[in-house]
Amino acid sequence: MKKMILILLMASIFVVACKKNSEEKLNRLSGTWELIESNSPKTMYAQGAGNKTIFTTSSYKDYRQNKLVDSGSYAITNSSTDSLGQWNGNISMNTLPCYFYVRKDTLEIDAPGIIFTNAVYIKIDD
What's the predicted TM-score (pTM) here? Predict the structure, then answer.
C-alpha cells in the first residue's frame, strides 16, 4: 500500500513538473517582440517604428509601422532547450511552418521556402 501511494505521489509530481515546464516555455514566447532585422531583402529596422509581433499563449498579432498586417493562432512542436538555455523548435503560424529559437530576449524565426526568410526580434514587453 505504501509503495502504491509513493508511486502515485511520484507520478503526480512528474505530471505537474512537465505541465509547469511547458507553461514556462510558452511564457518565454508570450509578450511583445520588436522586429529589428530581416534578410529578405537585408533590412535593419529602427526601434520604436511599430514593427512588432505580439504573442499570447495561443495566438499572435503582427504589426508593421503600427498597422495590423497578420494575426491568427500558432502551434509549437518538437521544441527543446539546449545546454546554453536556447529554446528552439517548429512553429506554425496560420499553418505556415517555420523554425524558431529564443535566446534570452532575442527571438529568431526562419521561414523556409523559395526565398529563405529570417527575422530577428527583441523582447520589449512581457
Answer: 0.75
Handedness of CA 66, 37, 77, 84 (dihedral sign): negative
pLDDT by 10s per residue, the chain, length 126: 444 333 334 443 443 333 444 445 556 899 999 999 999 789 999 999 999 999 999 999 999 999 999 999 999 999 999 888 889 999 998 877 899 999 989 999 998 876 668 999 999 998
Beta strand ranges found along the chain (DSSP E): 31-39, 42-44, 52-55, 59-64, 67-81, 87-93, 96-103, 106-111, 117-125
* CA-based radius of gyration for the chain: 18
H or E element in which residue 27 lies: helix 2-29
Q: What is the topology classification, in CATH, of domain 2-125?
A: Lipocalin (2.40.128)
User: Measured between alpha carbons, how far is 62 from 64 in angstroms, rounded to an integer?
Assistant: 7
Residue 16, C-beta contacts closer than 8 angstroms, at least 6 positions apart: none
For 51, the grid coordinates are 514593427
Q: Name the one residue in this structure whose C-alpha cell is 529570417.
A: 118
